[in-house]
Structures are given as C-alpha cells and as structure tokens.
Automatic annotation (TrEMBL):
Gene3D superfamilies: Ribonuclease Z/Hydroxyacylglutathione hydrolase-like. This is MBL fold metallo-hydrolase. Pfam families: Lactamase_B. Residues 29-226 form the Metallo-beta-lactamase domain. It comes from the Bacteria. InterPro entries: Metallo-B-lactamas, NDM-1-like, RibonucZ/Hydroxyglut_hydro. PANTHER family: ACYL-COENZYME A THIOESTERASE MBLAC2, METALLO-BETA-LACTAMASE DOMAIN-CONTAINING. It comes from Amycolatopsis cynarae.
Amino acid sequence: MTAGAAGRHLQDLGGGCYAWLQPPGCWGFANSGLIVDGGQGLVVDTQNDMPMASAFHSAIQSMSGAPSVDVVVNTHGDGDHWNGNQLFDGATIIASEATLADIRGHWLDPSKIDAYAQGDSAFAEFMRWRLAVFAYDGWRPVHPNQTYTGQLPLDVGKISVELREFGPAHTSGDTIVWVPGAGVLYSGDLLFTASTPIMWGGPLSRCVQACDRILGLEPRTIVPGHGPIIGPEGIVPIRDYLAFVLDYAKTAYQQGKSPREAYRELDLSRWGDWPHLSRTYQNISLVYRELDPQNFKGDVRDTLNVVYGDDHGDWRSLPATSTG
Ligand SMILES: [Zn+2]
C-alpha cells in the first residue's frame, strides 16, 4: 500500500490491477487506475489538477519495483480524466479518435475557468469554487498521441488488456479498460457510484446500453469514473436510473412539457440520498436534445445554471481543497 495525500493509496485489486480513488467522487474528483506487470505499467486517467496528479504519480514511483509507465489511457475527454497527462509525458497516451476530438475542442480546460468565473450566475459561482479547490499552476495541455476506434488489445507485461469504445454515451468517445484475466474493468464516466450520474454526449439510450455491455463482460470488480469500487450488482441501480430518466423524459416531451417542467415535476427522493440529484436536469435535457435538436440545442451554461443553482446540486458542501 502506498499512501498519498489525505490517505489516498493504490488499492490492490489483484491480478496486477490497482485503483487510485479520489473521494468524495463528486465534481472534479475522478478515479484513476494502474495495471502493472514485469516492470511495465499502464495508467488509466491522470487526475484533475496538479496536486492530485502529482500525488498519484508519486504513489506509483513509490511502489516497490516501481513500473515504468509506458502507456496512459484517457477514458474520455473531460478534463478531470486527462488534465494530469503532463506527469506522464513521454508515455504513449491512447484515447479513442472521438475522445481526442473532444479534448481538442474542450470547453472547460483549466485555461478557460477564469473567464467562466465572472458574474453572478450559479454557473460562475461554481467556477469560482473550482478555482478555489483545484490548483492548475504549471498546467499545460498534453493530448493523446495515439488513437483507435472500436477495440484495441494491449499487453502490459504478460497481462492482456482490452480497450473497448463504448461511446458515444457519456461523451462522444468513451473507452472502457478491461482486464479479463483479473476480472477488473475501469469504466470511466459510464459509471458514477454513490452520486448521480451525469451524461453529456448521449444518446442516453447508449448510456443504458453501455451498462448492459459492461455487465455482459461479467467483470468481478469495477472501478468507476467517480465514486467507490463496485461489483456487477452495483451497476444495476445506475442502469435503472438512466433507463427511468430516458423513458420519463420521452413521455414528458410527448406531453409537451418543457425540460424544466419535467424536472420540477419529478420526485427525486426515489433515489434517496444520492448526491447531486440536480444532474438529472442535464440528463433530461439530453433526451430532449436527441428527440428535437432544432428546439432543444441545450446551451451548456443555461443547463448548468439549473444544475448548480438547484438545492439538489449540493456541491457547496464539497471539500475546500483537492488534496485536503
Ligand atoms: Zn469525470
């Protein structure tokens, strides 16, 4: 066990697979993975900010028989999964073709947060929280330097690893990293555990299918993009939530309701104490955009003003630093 900041450590999942979890798993607190054999290492996602990425990198360096990280996989294009790529500069950094396009066009890389933090909106307030919590001094964009589509087999020492493109779903190009010999699967943000999933790219039906495809691989252990590790049974409530929201939003659209009406009328208490239930508004808006792109283009700032401004957003209770 290698301790990092705030008690974070590389959790041994067996079969050469490790998880680096980032509690509380909410906005910007994304997990990483590591696969090691024969002195070689493959990293899955590189953390959101510089202190988080450094802590993860140091933990790998501190392992007995520290591997050389030759390969990094970015599961998708959200910054909390690739902002730390520069710590692994020199490695082959792999992403799906669609993810590289997302990264090149990313609307929220660290260089843009300052501009978004101006003004009185809930969106701007959230961006000020991000600036206060996450540290990007010295950040520079390091993009994937190898892409694939569909499927890519890799070897880490003697461990067989498969990259499979399950996007478009959470974003336009989601990759899962599957280690069949160990039964370990790194899902990226196709799965959020212990908080409400939020899907950006869609279609939402593909997010439901992604859950089914993950279940179909019969993994023993799943490291989600955010939140605690789960077994396959942990996928079911996530799948059911997504399938419910999909059906609910379709019906609401057919009834002529606006996305806001649909959201306001939905009893969120059925999901108990999941944090950030206001993300449901984004998921509903995504379905409207799919059904009627002309009328529901879905301006991300308008949507996020609801997501962050709503009482169910509850991000204000999150930690005051990324490593505290
Ligand atoms: Zn994420």
